[in-house]
Amino acid sequence: MRDDPKEARRICRSAVVGSGAARFEIAFPEQPPIVVRSPIVIFNAGTERGETRLLVHAVITVPVPTAVVTHVTITKKGGGINAVARVPVIASGSGSLLDFKIRLGRRYTYEDEKRSLLTARCPDGVFEVSASKALFRNEAAVPHTAAQTILKTRVLAPCTPKG
Q1: Is 27 exposed, middle or buried (0-12, 13-18, 19+ CB in 10 A)?
Q2: CA nearest neighbour of 24 among 52, 67, 60, 69
Q3: Pick from 59, 63, 104, 162: CA 20 to 30 A from residue 71's CA?
Q4: pLDDT in tens, 3-55
Q5: In the beta sheet, which residues pair with residue 124?
Q6: For residues 44 and 25, what is the distance between their CA atoms, to the nearest angstrom?
């Protein structure tokens, strides 16, 4: 089960909240890098003390089929949300997550109101997404690459306020 996203989805069907795809790079010493693609299944791992937890399940096939389970913790912070994703060591440190695309889509009803894991508002015609700190570590010790890189960004997109 742990190495097969379809089986994980089947067994934990009621906890599935999203899906997507990811690309990983496996770079063993003295070999050209190998790009591995994987479907992603996102599971609701529960809410406790104001934290929503998700498990993001992917599988790499090099060197052997292995599940890559990323733990995500979402909390409300200030006027927005704070999400922390902990990607495990991949292929004994020879692997890296290159990119991913996800879609969260499960809705539920709470107190007679339709809700979702994530919500957004557009009060002023501008939707803002910020990453105050995204930390990337060079766990594979790639030469001429910093030991860690911190990304800070802000994206603004127009939106239509509801009246």
Answers
A1: middle
A2: 60
A3: 63
A4: 676 777 788 888 899 999 999 999 898 899 999 999 999 999 988 888 989 99
A5: none
A6: 27
With a threshold of 0.90, does the pTM exceed it?
Answer: no
CA distance 129 to 132: 10
Residues in the chain, overall count: 163
The pair of structure tokens assigned to 133 is 């700190």
Q: Are strands 107-110 and 148-158 parallel, antiparallel or unpaired?
A: unpaired
Tokens at 29, concatenated? 């010493």
| Predicted confidence (pLDDT) per residue in 76-108, tens digit | 877 677 788 888 989 988 888 888 888 887 776
Terminal C-alpha separation, the chain = 47
